[in-house]
Amino acid sequence: MMQVLFVEDDPMNRRVVKDMLSVVGATMDEAPDAETGLQMIDEGAFNIILMDLRMPGMDGLTAIRHLRARADAKRELPVIVVTADTAVDLREQCLAGGADDVILKPVAMNMLLKAMSRMLAKQSDGVMLS
Prior knowledge:
The chain is an alpha/beta fold. It contains five helices and five strands. A five-stranded parallel beta sheet has the order 2-1-3-4-5, with helices on both faces. Helix 3 (60-68) links the parallel strand 3 (48-51) and strand 4. The radius of gyration is 13 Å and the shape is globular.
């Protein structure tokens, strides 16, 4: 079963994505901020991380940099940025910061599933990193 972590401060956005993922049989854990998300990554096993950019406290790009700086296999977890930010160079900034993909809010189910499929296809063994 696919296990997703969504790091997002807006509870309604988390609920919408959780409902989308449940349709395809994926389960989703929720973190209301980046610090909590990084702690959950320490403690859990996830296939994909969905990361908001603009959150109180630590922002999403900083959290991604922390994840990529790890010394263990979790540093390779696929991260998809989920953002309402439409800056011209946003995608390039996110990819340069360690994200694997970027999708825009409001999240469209087909875009989310396509991005997740691309990330899973890149994983060589397709199993959860723990």
